[in-house]
Amino acid sequence: MGGGRIVEAMVEDFKSQGYEVTYHLVNAKNYGVPQDRERVFIIGVRLDIANEYKFKYELPHPTHGEGTDRQKPYVTLKDAIGHLKSSEIGEVYESSFSSRFLSRNRKRRWDEVSFTIQASGRHAPLHPSGEPMIKLGKDEWVLPETSEHRRLSAVEVALIQTFPANYVWKGSLGAIYKQVGNAVPCLLAKAVSQPLADFLSSYYQSVNPASIEGSKTEKVEIDTEARIVRKKRIKKYKKRLPKYKRRQYGKKTFAVTPTNQKIKVGKVTNKVKEMVAI
Asked: What's the top EC group for this one (predicted)?
């Protein structure tokens, strides 16, 4: 941005407000995200916190790369969406391919990472199936007519952005593509924020070492107390119900009221549960 001048200006502005600031150019594929996606992250820590607790933000080392000993291989399109059945693909943005869309390659192979997922269904990358695009000249590509070509579906781009498969999206198809494309990939967000989370966890544990264990104990005590209260209420409300006698009619057991009405035993139990508001 502006040859780096804009970022430098932003950093200076934050420093003048009492923050220690660092910025990092990060590619999502280096942190387990199956796509080429370069973004700049600006991290600011208040100077009083940085000085008092000797905390300095350091970007975690890349976890994925060209398959070196210290890094895992890049996550590919095959890894991310190759398992999907045709019934699991979901809706796909259907539209003709504009000259702008065909001005560059939009299709990666199964064994590669995806192109950047954009905030538009119209500009979603192409699915890796079928033949690759052919370059005719500068800013001019074509799709071979010998195979079918389609854009990645909303489900597929969400998986490439490393959202959980069961994540529920709201809105129209176009709105979902936009939400997915505007998001920071989940695994990248986790990697970048992990040093901050570790610092906060360490800080709170040092302030109150028993806080974590105490919260677990407190939850157990609350659950136990709730069960005791529930048992007392059930016992109380059972007294309000008429006394039923159990009788066997064929293979089914019924509770018989004093007026000889037959009620399934399960309904008696459900009646008690309805009266106990827990």
From this structure: transferase
Cα–Cα nearest to 189, from 60, 48, 20: 60
d(CA 188, CA 20): 22
CB 115 within 8 A of CB 141: no
CA distance linking residue 189 with residue 192, whole number of Å: 5
The average pLDDT across 13-38 equals 96
The helix (H) or strand (E) run that includes residue 228 is helix 211-238
| Residue 89, beta-bridge partner list | none
Q: Which domain covers residue 224, as residue numbers?
A: 212-275
Please indicate, yes or no, if residue 51 is contained in any of the structural domains.
no
Domain total for the chain? 1
pLDDT band of residue 146 (cuts 50, 70, 90) is: confident
CB of 43 closer than 8 Å to CB of 26? no
Q: Rounded distance, CA 191 to CA 196, Å? A: 10
> Looking at the domain assignment, is residue 19 inside a domain?
no
pTM: 0.73
Give residue-wise pLDDT tens across range 68-118.
677 999 999 999 999 999 999 999 999 999 999 999 999 999 999 999 999
Distance CA 110, CA 127 (A): 9
In a domain, 243, yes or no: yes
Mean pLDDT of 242-260: 52
Q: Which pair of structure tokens corresponds to residue 230? A: 């529930």
